[in-house]
Amino acid sequence: MKILLLGNGGRESALARVIHKSKQTEKLYISPGNPSTEAWGENVDLEGFEQISSFCEKESIDILVVGPEQPLVEGITDYINQNNHRTIVIGANKQGAQLEGSKDFAKNFMFKYNIPTARYQTFSSSTIKEAKSFLSTLNAPYVLKADGLAAGKGVVILPNLSEAEKELDAMLLDAKFGKASNKVVIEEFLSGVECSVFVLTDGKHYVILPEAKDYKKVGQNDTGLNTGGMGSVSPVPFCNESFLSKVEQRIIKPTIQGLQEEGIDYKGFIFFGLMNVEGEPYVIEYNVRMGDPESESVFARWDSDIVEAFLMVGKGELDKYLLEINSQTATTVMLCSGGYPLDYEKGKEIFGLDKVDNSTIIYHAGTKYSENKKIVTSGGRVLAVTCLGNNMQEALNKCYSEIEKIHFDKMYYRKDIGKDLEA
Ligand code: AMP
Ligand code: GLY
Fold it and tell me: Phi then psi for 332, rounded to 5 degrees?
């Protein structure tokens, strides 16, 4: 099979590695990819739907895998399906991508199909008065969400009513997140522990991937600003059989059923961002892509042939797929540029990558080649270091000892990934 994968982050590095492992893969292209994806395929530089579509045509691409949400929300799947009949697209169409592209759409969907989520209402600038009176019926803290995509920054949690009202004005009246905050979802705060559950679906059938926990805050012990994710662990000890069976019955099944009832032909990944509230799962958000840095841990445990799963998605026969998951624990620690998620410097040379053990996976997330062909930093999240172990502690010990070998100026990482999950 000839496969084209879109994206350039840690998630796509993880996908590239597992696609490369498949016996079915004859050729893998990654656009634009990064220095680590070169180990698993050929990086190409395609811009815009038209270039991607003509590349699929010219290179007889069998499967297009879309890593990030933006092109999905913009309708790349519909475009390719209209123009390239032979290419199977792994990624939601425009209608399905609304699950992530519009918080209002997602909340309506969950209420319609009785999927547990926080109580909410949606407002625009013309209903700001009603928004403030709804706020006053809730208890602190207050959760405000820009309706549209806002580069992961559109959720704001405020400790008191006056700050919540100020934020609401900024979002609705001053377009704090541009068009994305034309509408704002206000919802009840859910208190619990978060985890991420993923499925791959052909629209009717699904396979449940291993769950993961992500560490979103920049500082030790979950303090400081939110980031894209500072590390991950899979499996998650508190996601026991009973919890996961509630997730499947109350959340996954009604979601797939609901998509069918809405006439949405969804072929791709769904990421359920969940809150475990005293053993009961609630959906915090849907994403129409895999998580990052969850993918780095989840795909490190994927032992079966992923391309076969993609082919079955194409045929609508995913029920025939046998997912084999490594029973070991995978842990990922993100090495970041000092200062991230605020301002940080780029272009720092990365040392020690050649000293890392063969069994350790180094996924690049924000790197590039400098003019003199050295690997340098080019983003806030730079490298994901992933290790497997017989238990979480073993995997983490390995990660942290491997990290000792890597260095770049102002490198920063959290030293407490997984600590909260220790027995
Ligand atoms: P999102 O961008 O939707 O993932 O939201 C960002 C983060 O805000 C989530 O990972 C949660 O930590 C938090 N969050 C979102 N909605 C709620 C809620 N209703 N209650 C508590 N925390 C929330
Ligand atoms: N790690 C959370 C996300 O990918 O959105």
Answer: -130, 130
